Amino acid sequence: MPVGRRQLIVHGSQLGLAASVVGLAGCAGRMEVKAAPPAENGIVRIPLASHPGLEVPGAAVALDIEGLDDQVLLVHGPDGFSCVTRKCTHMGCKVEYDGAAGHIQCPCHGSQYENDGTNKKGPAKKPLTQYTATLDGDAVAITIA
Ligand code: FES
Q: Which of 19-28, 51-60, 81-90 is least confident?
């Protein structure tokens, strides 16, 4: 089913990461979770140099951020960066990014979300929790507080 999948595994120890950053994925499939740097003043900075695939639209990285109950998905879509929880609002499965289709998808029952977490297709009826993600120099700043 998945085609065109790209993955990049970043070792937390090499980046001085405290939690886990997930992996890069160009389409639906199992994403690998990696450590993210610790938040400073409620902001987690994800260096693009550490995730080269994120430099172009159509990729995503799954992150485990210290202090958050659920992993997040940092997406670089055609309109820029977005960050949402990976917890599907239907029954809680971990959503993934389908870069070929350009949306977030749940592997369990097929719910689809736009890159900003709004609902595209059910059965999920509620949007994914969104965190602000903005390009800040050579990194993406995710606001978690
Ligand atoms: S848990 Fe995601 S669609 Fe059912």
A: 19-28
Question: 105: CA distance to ligand 1 center in Å?
Answer: 9
Determine which residue's CA is closest to atom 1 belonging to ligand 1: 91
17 C-alpha to ligand 1 centroid (Å) = 30
Mean pLDDT of 104-130: 97
Ligand 1 atom, smallest distance to 111 CA: 3
Domain range annotation of the chain: 12-143
Q: Which CATH superfamily is domain 12-143 in?
A: Rieske [2Fe-2S] iron-sulphur domain (2.102.10.10)
pLDDT at 24: 46
Chain centroid, CA 51 distance in Å: 12
